[in-house]
């Protein structure tokens, strides 16, 4: 018996591909060289969100980064959704062309702790005169066993150097292994740039940036790209951690208001001690306490998948536009972003 296949058409284009009932839309698209936006491939970041113009899909397990409200409005996550018939789909982010990824031999130029759990790593790619990437994207580090670990660039493109803020993960083969041993002059094999989390420069809405932990890294790169820019929109940055020690960029961020337009920085701690005089609780709840209406904002979420899904639900209740929520979820269980 012939294997059943369905036709998947990308709305508004001539691109189409075939998919079987037991494979995800994303896998089928990539097999046909149709590069739908995607990152984590685990249903945790929401980058691969599509709108079902025609047809329906099924899931082996309902994905974390899709809300029931989004599903009811015809959205799906391509990395988890399997076709139940012929489909016409529309990528929520469009088929944006990104700088091509390439492998490089990088040289460690600096490595130092910035907190008990976070390391600042600076790499240089000698063979590249200039590293082209979009602030917000990430890099893969190739490990000796053939696996990879992924970390967001924490700086804007500048010559052939790039820096990272890397959180130590218990039992992590890179963060508690290689990273603890590397020194200036050591070499790493890397692949960059990767990912589709980046500033939508065509969107002039006020920016609401929400991060937890080292989710601040790609947000930092994005905001650095806006510094001293006369077209910079108003920026609100909410950064959550457990204790004050987690806010390793606190002093630096407080200076950003000199170079960003109407910059508002709100640090939030969930396990603060008695000495903390700032906001307490979860970072997404601090946002909803401050904003009754988010309908006019472009929202960038980066950090734990649990924060992202809770934030999306809470912000939609504040009339946030799903088409203007961009997210990157960090997971400790995988080798790519969703990240470290």
Number of domains: 3
Low-pLDDT parts are: 332-340
CATH level-four homologous superfamily name of the largest domain: Nucleotide-binding domain of ferredoxin-NADP reductase (FNR) module
Distance between the termini: 45 Å
Number of helices: 7
Helicity range = 10-25%
Name of the CATH class of the largest domain: Alpha Beta
β-sheet strand percentage: 25-35%
CATH fold-level label of the largest domain:
Rossmann fold
Order of helical and strand elements: EEHEEHEEEEEEEEHEEHEHEEHEHE
Rg estimate, integer Å: 20 Å
Main structural class: alpha/beta
Shape, per Cα inertia axes = globular
In what order do the strands lie side by side in the largest sheet?
Answer: 11-10-13-8-9-12
Q: What summary fits the major beta sheet?
A: 6 strands, antiparallel
InterPro entries: 2Fe-2S_ferredoxin-like_sf, 2Fe-2S_ferredoxin-type, 2Fe2S_fd_BS, Beta-grasp_dom_sf, Cbr1-like_FAD-bd_dom, FAD-bd_FR_type, Flavoprot_Pyr_Nucl_cyt_Rdtase, FNR_nucleotide-bd
Protein name: CDP-4-dehydro-6-deoxyglucose reductase
Organism: Bradyrhizobium lablabi
GO molecular function: 2 iron, 2 sulfur cluster binding; oxidoreductase activity
What does this structure look like?
The chain is an alpha/beta fold and 340 residues long. The protein folds into three domains: 6-91, Beta-grasp domain (Ubiquitin-like (UB roll)), CATH 3.10.20.30; 102-194, Elongation Factor Tu (Ef-tu), domain 3, CATH 2.40.30.10; 207-329, 3-Layer(aba) Sandwich (Rossmann fold), CATH 3.40.50.80. Helix content is 16%, strand content 31%. The strands form four sheets. Strands 11-10-13-8-9-12 form a six-stranded antiparallel β-sheet, covered by helices on one side.
């Amino acid at each position: 018996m012939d294997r059943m296949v369905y036709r998947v058409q990308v709305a508004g284009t001539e691109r189409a591909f075939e998919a079987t009932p037991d494979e995800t839309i994303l896998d089928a698209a990539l097999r046909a060289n149709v590069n739908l936006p995607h990152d984590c491939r685990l249903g945790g970041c929401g980058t691969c969100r599509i709108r079902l113009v025609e047809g329906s899909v099924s899931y082996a397990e309902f994905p974390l980064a899709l809300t029931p409200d989004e599903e009811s409005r015809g959205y799906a996550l391509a990395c988890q959704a399997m076709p139940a018939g012929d489909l016409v789909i529309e990528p929520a982010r469009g088929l944006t062309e990104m700088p091509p990824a390439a492998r490089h031999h990088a040289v460690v130029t600096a490595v130092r702790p910035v907190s008990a759990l976070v390391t600042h790593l600076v790499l240089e790619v000698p063979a590249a005169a200039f590293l082209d990437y979009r602030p917000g994207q990430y890099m893969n580090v190739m490990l000796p066993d053939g696996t990879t670990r992924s970390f967001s660039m924490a700086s804007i493109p500048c010559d052939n150097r790039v820096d990272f803020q890397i959180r130590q993960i218990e039992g992590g083969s890179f963060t508690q292994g290689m990273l603890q041993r590397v020194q200036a002059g050591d070499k790493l094999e890397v692949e960059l740039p990767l990912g589709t989390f980046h500033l939508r420069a065509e969107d002039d809405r006020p920016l609401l940036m929400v991060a937890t932990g080292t989710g601040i890294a790609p947000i930092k790169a994005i905001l650095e790209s806006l510094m001293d820019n006369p077209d910079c929109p108003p920026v609100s940055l909410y950064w959550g951690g457990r204790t004050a020690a987690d806010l390793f960029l606190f002093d630096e961020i407080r200076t950003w208001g000199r170079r960003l337009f109407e910059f508002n920085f709100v640090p939030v701690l969930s396990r603060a001690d008695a000495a903390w005089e700032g906001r307490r609780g979860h970072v997404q709840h601090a946002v909803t306490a401050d904003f009754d209406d988010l309908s006019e904002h472009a929202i960038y979420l980066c950090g734990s998948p649990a924060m992202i899904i809770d934030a999306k639900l809470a912000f939609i209740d504040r009339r946030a536009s799903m088409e203007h929520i961009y997210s990157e979820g960090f997971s400790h269980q995988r080798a790519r972003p969703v990240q470290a």
